[in-house]
Design goal:
2 copies of one chain form a homodimer. With 342 residues, the first copy, chain A, is of the alpha/beta class. Helices cover 48% and strands 9% of the residues of chain A.
């Protein structure tokens, strides 16, 4: 953070009609936002959530409770406004964009889905490399282009959401390949039982072993990742230096953000962790990036649901900084005036 | 909770387009709200926050960093929309009412303040009983009448906020009189230093000792409490059976709610703890009532700021329950359909 912005923002906060520091973490969010925007106080006028969807070849191995069809069925639900992310975004003030990064279905021409389809699902990383080099490069580039578009549209805060049956398996594989123990990051996802969980664990460990050693985050992502996850990574990297703050969501999005962080640790300076999800492993990755989750509702839904809730809080922090009266303007005594009362 | 409401609500939630239970605590809030309203799904259309203000004689003992004047100065700030509670309520969808329970100042005729003034501040409980019997009865009755008015106005969710220099001292005294150790509930309030904290501790312990033994919560409240706090207690008790849910705020409001809980433990069934404040002692009282705070932002501002933020979350829970598509309506496969995919 530029020291001049930090001290100007601190002075601004301390002159609002409240005891110094009494808005707690909201003041911290406003400080971080001021640093991102380089503006005191920071302003949020337009917010959007991008829900990146893709299918995962690894689903063939029976790692999820839901059929792959759900990925494209949910895309239709996003468009008609019936998904959790639609309802939450309606009230938290986010525009919703559904991004097809690699869904194994065709959408009708003229649909409002943002078409960044790299392919109809990745290959199973248990048997093949998930993507070709060309596919991986395209996915990263798609993400960067989408970020450029969001910046151009004037969004001040963008949230990243995910939809993809099998994506907690993919996310776990990415993290295991970076050195996280499998036991710390393989989870029940949408709610599989003990036997399915043990199977998922084996699939992740075997798959990661098969493609190693890895030369770095891009290599890991190409061999094990999802199209839509590489797009998220490119998207997050593409926001750098733009002044646009970014809310991340649960486990799969956070895994993609961690890949961006491995490529460029500076991304953490403009990321906010919307929430702590119930999916195991989410907390440790956030901690690795130095991000503290804003809320913790034991959610495990994805779609950006935790990102928009946390984003609403960051927005509230900005709104209090922008709209509260100062001691002078409101004619309220400051704590320094207390002596007169004793 | 009526079992039929609980099972109907659970079935409703499980048929929305998301993995069962994946909205985590939001689903729990929706369940509790359904029980309060006796309706599936529960609906929130109108929300209000009542900020109860009063002055405390104990401020004469030098327990606060701010002069007593701040109480009435902040009332003017509430009316002009410049306080934190105004900004947060604007975006969380709460109408703001400033209630004069016992501020030591006169407000201009025609001001929008709800005039429930019992007196111009309580007496210092270090030297006198804080209130007379008549004052205490009036305050409790005022609170009940205000609750009846809120019910009649059709608010589905009401939040309780506080404003009163010295009220963390008063709240601590109430709790110590009920048996909480002083070390667990005497806090820095708006930010006093070590010496002032030690003094505040002594004031609380001596004051509580002076007026004991106590015959119960009403006796404690009369001898040690604040006018506006007795009004909060009456307000909370007055909501019973109405179907209106109530958000409580930080330490002073929670102390008043705990007095209501001591009088009638059933109040916990329609209370939500908006947040966990940074003021010491807040967590243990919430725990005693079996209430889990919704957010934890280290706030220590009062005014209902944590109550409206938490209330927004309860509202979101209700909105997802009301507005999300079902699996059938959205044409999304359920987890039971997974077999076809293997």
């Amino acid at each position: 953070m530029e020291n001049s912005i930090a001290s100007a923002m601190q002075a601004h906060l301390d002159n609002l009609t409240k005891p110094a520091g009494s808005l707690g973490k909201l003041e911290g969010y406003a400080m971080k936002l001021a640093a991102i925007q380089g503006r005191v106080p920071p302003v949020i006028a337009k917010k959007a959530v991008y829900v990146f969807a893709g299918d995962h070849g690894i689903v063939e191995e029976g790692v999820s409770l839901y059929p792959k069809d759900v990925t494209h069925e949910m895309m239709a639900n996003f468009l008609s406004g019936g998904a959790a992310i639609n309802v939450l975004s309606r009230y938290c003030g986010f525009e919703v964009f559904a991004v097809d990064g690699g869904v194994d279905a065709d959408f009708p021409a003229g649909s409002k889905i943002i078409d960044l389809k790299v392919g109809r699902g990745t290959k199973s990383f248990l048997t093949d490399e998930a993507m070709t080099h060309a596919e991986f490069d395209l996915a990263m580039e798609n993400g960067r282009k989408l970020a450029a578009g969001a910046i151009k549209e004037g969004f001040d805060l963008v949230a990243v959401g995910d939809m993809g049956i099998g994506n907690t398996t993919t996310a776990a594989a990415l993290l295991v390949a970076t050195g996280f123990p499998a036991g710390a990051v393989v989870d029940r996802g949408t709610g599989i039982d003990d036997a399915a969980l043990a199977h998922k664990y084996d699939v992740v460990v075997e798959g990661v072993k098969k493609h190693g050693p890895y030369s770095g985050a891009p290599d890991i992502m190409r061999k094990l990742g999802g199209f839509e996850m590489a797009e998220m990574t490119g998207f997050i990297l593409g926001l750098k230096g733009s002044g646009v703050a970014c809310m991340i969501d649960g486990f799969p999005v956070t895994a993609a953000a961690y890949m961006a962080f491995m490529i460029d640790p500076e991304v953490a300076s403009y990321l906010f962790a919307g929430h702590l999800g119930k999916v195991k492993g989410h907390g440790p990755i956030l901690e690795r990036m130095g991000l503290e989750p804003i809320v913790a509702f034991d959610m495990r839904l994805g779609e950006g649901t935790g990102a928009v809730i946390g984003g609403f809080m960051v927005d509230l922090a900005s709104k209090t900084a922008c709209e509260m009266a100062s001691f002078e303007s409101a004619g309220v005594s400051k704590s320094g005036d207390v002596e007169k009362n004793f």
